[in-house]
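Progress note, project year one: complex with pyridoxal-5'-phosphate.
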Amino acid sequence: MPVPRPTRVEIDLAALRHNFREIQRIVGPGCDVLAVVKADAYGHGVSQVAPALADAGARLFGVALVEEGMQLRRLGIEQPIIILGGIFPGQEPDVLAHQLTPVLYDLTCARQLERVASDAGCNIDYHLKVDTGMGRLGFRVELLDEALPVLKNLKNLNMTGLMSHLAVADEPQRPLTGLQYDAFAGVIAKVSEAGFKPLYRHIANSAGIYSRELTGCNLVRPGISLYGGLTGGPYVNRFTQQPVMSFISQVAQLKDIPPGEGVSYGHRFVTSRLSRVAAVPVGYADGYNRLLTNRGDVLIHGRRAPVVGTVCMDWTLVDVTDLPDTRVGDQVTLLGQDGDAIITAEEWADKIGSITYEVFCQISKRVPRLFVNA
Ligand SMILES: Cc1ncc(COP(=O)(O)O)c(C=O)c1O
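Model obtained:
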């Protein structure tokens, strides 16, 4: 095995399990938790994250793609796996073979799935998705009267869940979330009147879980809060989320640069004093976003040091003039905690004009994930 460079991501599985249990505590025993682990568990590494969540008590799993569902089955996940992104023509046999549960949001897809299931002589569970205001996937509410009788006639399909998705749950002051809940309550009644008895009714993502009572629902679908990425704003006092991901590298070279010299591509940073600059082997190809050029901070010995100059594909430069004890080989924390200091995904997201989800998903596959506290 080649020795990898020291740049790595550490995933704290104890923090992940803690976050899961906190969510289960908040929703109470009458509500199950579907753990959303799409996109390689939001960049955290599904191979260890999914089994850890199963151990912690996740009753269902959610992914975006059929391929991701198949990967979960290969990992030994036996719980129901909901394909939140639906299925595409030709994927029906894989759904069947791996006992995946697709979300259905159009009749063409439902009829095709019925044909494949009936040919194979088996039944397929599905969750029906209704659009109550997200404006993305789902049957529009006014089309349900037409769609439900058609679905009722598809004898090889079982509706085991009824769902919708919130558009602005992370902005609690906006009235839309309440309106979506009201609309969903009407949908639950309509679906029941049409003779369906879906086991699960669910609408809330992470922000939805903390923003209001979940009347009528018995399943929640947290993603980002499992990974400790929803700690700011109105949620801060509601529960204790722990960050799961740390992104760590090392000082590879130290250099003293006289005042007035440019640093890195484009010379976007020019020293104003005799400066000590550390070269850190991490760059935008690793997911260290180029927008952190002259804006990011890192932690060394529990103290902040600023990123100077353009973030390169494989290298980032840090001004350590004010941290004179810095040595080659010292740990550099790009994301996470060092002593009392912390760089959160929120801080990083604010600096690059994005969201914590993208910060996590951007850390590229060439960065090894190390799992701690298994
Ligand atoms: C349908 C659906 N449900 C739940 C989630 C989880 O959302 P969050 O990560 O905000 O908790 C997602 C993520 O985008 C989703 O697409």
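Residues 245-372 form a domain with the Lyase, Ornithine Decarboxylase; Chain A, domain 1 fold (CATH 2.40.37.10).
The longest strand covers residues 124-131.
No further modelling is planned for this target in the current period.
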